[in-house]
Specification:
With about 900 residues, this protein is an alpha+beta fold. It contains 16 helices and 44 strands.
């Protein structure tokens, strides 16, 4: 047996010890207490001493806002339920002191010799003073919602290790009048902060304007040198494919090194990735921060990162470290690096910008994102769930809207994981910042055009947030503002100096519907519309060539309404042709967009359950058609589109594919099919069957099967033919106008389109329900029940496989909604991720669906309810 020499063993143990103790970071997310300023006596220097009594101070939620703390302490009702938000005092009327709070935490920490201890705040809204152990840490009041703070607290820590931190947090100023306008009276935009908190057409005002320590607070321990803001750039030249051997890629790395001591530090900064290390020896002057560029690292045969639908999302673990002259590790930053290169070019045919990843054109199928939670209750788990839903919609881009946040790193981590490119707006909107005449606004357009008040703070905040998120593979584009450019003295340095210096790899578009992105040859604002459209319009009407906002409705089913709407208000809207529809006041408060005449072709809604059930048919059809219509003209009319919008951070009833509680509606699965990478589809304008290939793969030997089922389940095969299609291409194949007209005339029919591989397995499966000659779904209204058999088995922890079987001789088992429910309460488990839902099964066929969820102590039941399939609950077998 070989043995290490004792001296070498000791050396290795010492190195391991240095690595283990060199850096420790932990979050201060428990033990916080708070008190309103009006009930607090004493200065911060007194409150932050351990002897100051915290009598009657209440538990606080940090990260969180004043309102999340008040809600946790049962001082206010849930503002997401019913009309509860109206019962919470608004800061515009109470005055700012009402929501000005002290926050206190006590922690144990005493530095070892040579160790530096740092206090980091990742976000406070809106201004604050910070005190530790009787000392004020900031020389002047810290201001800015989007600006991190870091303090070296080593000199101020108590010798006994018991420390008290006190932070007083002041609300934005001004807070804005929530008068019903977009962003209220607009003055909330005088701050460098989010604008939606004063109300929008999809949300009611957040009463405290989200005042508080809203993002993480951490304690970090390092050696003499702190590694900060590493920057990784990946260069992937040429035109690549997702599979096969790759030519080399180049990795370029830099980092800021802060020497917090009074003496010069000599050591080595190094970067390690894929078993390779590059390094550079440096000398750091005392009390300085120095940016160091490392030698380039060449990655041979790299595993590349691709957007969703085009390839895998490989992430390389990487380390940036500083090692002292004595070989002790002073500090390190861990990264996950996606090797890819994003470029843009002008498409002269569409007259719009198109996106390239690793040299390949990517047709953008995007989503507009607001924020995960209107009260900023942010978590990695919720980010992961929401971005996974977008992956399941077969989308490939998230646009982060400018009236909210530059999102948190955990959001981009989820986008990295699931392959969603990100278009990131900065903080501005046409509504608040003066694009339009608006009688709801306090100031005129000329004044609002110069919002915010502090342009220097905006630029400082932008630089800081760029550093925070720039290493994420998913981050693809920067956008100056939503529907308006930023003030010139903000946009020019941001575009021409700050972004080139701090990033330099991503396209900057000056605003979301700029001619630089999408030439506006139609007039108007360059985006929209935002309501239900005739299905034919998505295919036949040529809209803006890269539409940054186009969307539709989003009412969920009855189970969703139960979560936030009192029973008395669960009343179906009544459509009045040519008049004003009758809509309940709570529906209006929660920003309902009318379905109007779109429900009636399925039969007038008999009650609320029937209304929400039929609304799902509309949801599915609208969102499938939206993406099919754009895809049918890719590279000809369009280079992409971005849906407005796919999620709600509040219990709104519009523009969503899943509700606030993470329960999907049928629109998600309509989009799942309409956006699939290889997709067979029906053009209702010219009755042409088409195929869209949103991949880089050439598909050959596909069997195209076109069938029509009548309402009794009898099928007619219109054609069955082998086909092929090239990469990133859409093309028409078979006109079926006469056959469809004849087969749907009396009662309507089901059109079933499939692409099968050589093993006869579906690679695209799409079913349409077509109306009769009058435009009414008369056959659906009379559809006989289908005797569907349901089986469910657990195939792994947290994974259930469900099989639906429809016997031969039955009608189509139409529009079946699967749910996982608690076996006792029959309430849905959330979130659950379905490989498909609202599925239809033709006679003599079966479909298998997988369901992913977080397992509990007992197995759930599977619930099934369809258009013509009675509700049933089936236990999950092992």
């Amino acid at each position: 047996m070989n043995r290490l020499p004792f001296s070498r063993l000791v050396g290795l143990l010492m190195l391991v010890s240095c690595w283990a103790s060199a850096q420790t970071t932990y979050e201060l997310n428990t033990g916080w207490r708070c008190n309103p300023i009006g009930k607090t006596t004493g200065a911060g220097t007194t409150i932050s001493t351990p002897t100051y009594a915290l009598t009657n101070w209440q538990p606080a939620v940090v990260p969180g806002t004043v309102l999340t703390t008040m809600l946790a302490n049962k001082q206010v009702p849930d503002p997401f339920y019913g009309m509860n938000n109206e019962a919470i005092p608004d800061i515009y009327r109470t005055g700012r002191d009402y929501y000005t709070y002290w926050f206190v935490n006590e922690f144990t920490e005493s530095p070892k010799t040579g160790q530096q201890v740092w206090l980091n705040f990742r976000g406070i809204n809106y201004s604050c003073d910070v005190f530790l152990n009787g000392r004020k840490l900031n020389t002047k009041r810290f201001t800015g919602m989007f600006l991190r703070q870091t303090y070296n607290i080593t000199p101020y820590l108590q010798k006994d290790g018991k420390n008290r931190l006190a932070v007083i947090v002041y609300p934005p100023d001004p807070v804005g009048n929530p008068n019903g306008g977009q962003g209220g009276d607009g003055t909330i935009a005088r701050n460098v902060a989010h604008q939606y908190v004063a109300g929008w057409d999809w949300i009611q005002p957040m009463r405290d304007r989200n005042t508080g320590i809203w993002d993480k607070v951490t304690i970090e321990k390092t050696g003499a040198v702190n590694v900060k803001n590493p920057h990784v750039v990946t260069v992937v030249p040429g035109k690549r494919l997702p599979t096969g051997a790759q030519q080399p890629a180049t990795i370029r790395v830099s980092a800021e090194l802060e020497n917090a001591t009074g003496t010069a530090q000599i050591g080595t900064v190094r970067y390690t990735m894929n078993g390779q290390t590059v390094s550079k020896d440096v000398r750091l002057a005392p009390q300085t921060t120095t940016t160091v560029d490392l030698p380039a690292l060449t990655l041979t045969n790299p595993r590349l990162w691709w957007p969703n639908g085009y390839g895998a999302q490989y992430l390389y673990p990487a380390l940036v470290q500083f090692v002292t002259g004595t070989k002790a590790l002073s500090d390190e930053e861990k990264l996950d690096v996606g090797v890819r290169e994003v470029q843009t070019e002008w498409n002269s045919t569409t007259r719009s910008r198109q996106i390239l990843v690793n040299g390949q054109n990517v047709f953008i199928k995007g989503a507009n994102w607001i924020v995960s939670d209107a009260m900023l209750r942010l978590s990695p788990e919720r980010y992961n769930a929401e971005i996974r839903f977008h992956r399941d919609m077969n989308l490939n881009l998230m646009r982060v809207w400018g009236g909210a946040l530059l999102e948190r790193p955990e959001f981009y981590q989820a986008c990295d994981k699931y392959g969603l490119l990100v278009m990131q707006d900065f903080w501005g909107s046409g509504d608040c910042n003066g694009r339009w005449v608006d009688p709801a606004k306090k100031d005129d357009q000329w004044t609002r055009r110069q919002y915010p008040d502090d342009h220097s703070l905006f630029l400082t905040s932008a630089a800081d947030q760029i550093k925070m998120v720039r290493n994420h593979a998913s981050l693809a584009m920067w956008c100056g503002g939503n529907e308006i450019t930023l003030p010139q003295d903000i946009m020019t340095p941001l575009r021409d100096s700050i972004l080139p210096k701090l990033d330099g790899t991503r396209w900057f578009v000056d605003y979301s519907n700029s001619d630089e992105m999408s030439f506006n040859f139609l007039g108007g604002n360059g985006d929209g519309p935002y309501g239900i459209q005739p299905i034919n319009r998505f295919w036949a009407y040529r809209t803006w060539p890269f539409n940054s906002e186009v969307g539709s409705v989003g009412v969920n089913d009855y189970a969703s309404l139960e979560r936030f709407m009192p029973e008395a208000n669960r009343v179906a809207p009544v459509y009045v042709p040519g008049g004003k529809s009758k809509v309940d006041s709570v529906w209006q408060y929660h920003k309902y967009i009318g379905y109007d005449a779109s429900i009636d072709p399925y039969g007038k809604a008999t009650d609320i359950r029937d209304f929400t059930k039929k609304a799902q048919l509309v949801n599915y059809d609208q969102y499938r058609a939206l993406m099919e219509g754009f895809s049918s003209h890719m590279w000809d009319w369009y280079t992409g589109t971005i849906i407005w919008k796919t999620q709600n951070p509040w219990t709104a009833m519009r523009g969503q594919l899943y509700d606030y509680y993470l329960d999907p509606n049928a629109g998600l699965y309509g989009l799942h099919h309409g956006s699939e990478p290889l997709h067979i589809m029906y053009n209702p304008v010219d009755s042409m069957v088409m195929v869209a290939n949103n991949t880089f793969q050439y598909y050959r030997d596909m069997m195209m099967v076109i069938k029509v089922y009548d309402m009794a389940g009898h099928d007619t095969t219109l054609t069955q033919v082998f086909s092929e299609i090239g990469p990133t291409l859409v093309r028409p194949y078979v006109p079926i106008n006469r056959a469809i007209r004849n087969l749907t005339r009396d009662k309507g029919a089901f059109l079933h389109l499939q692409l099968l591989d050589l093993n006869r397995k579906p690679i695209s499966d799409n079913l349409y329900w077509l109306p009769d000659s009058t435009g009414t779904h008369s056959g659906l209204q009379q559809l006989a029940n289908a005797p569907v058999r349901l089986s469910a088995r657990q195939v792994a922890a947290g994974k259930v496989e469900v099989t639906l079987t429809n016997p031969a001789g039955s009608p189509v088992a139409f529009f079946n909604r699967l749910s996982l429910v608690d076996p006792t309460t029959k309430k849905r488990l959330l979130p659950v991720f379905y490989s498909d839902n609202y599925v239809s099964v033709p006679p003599g066929q079966q479909k298998t669906i997988t369901l992913d969820y977080t397992p509990g102590a007992t197995l759930p039941l599977v619930a099934l309810e369809g258009w013509n399939v009675p509700e049933q609950f089936v236990p999950v077998g092992r």
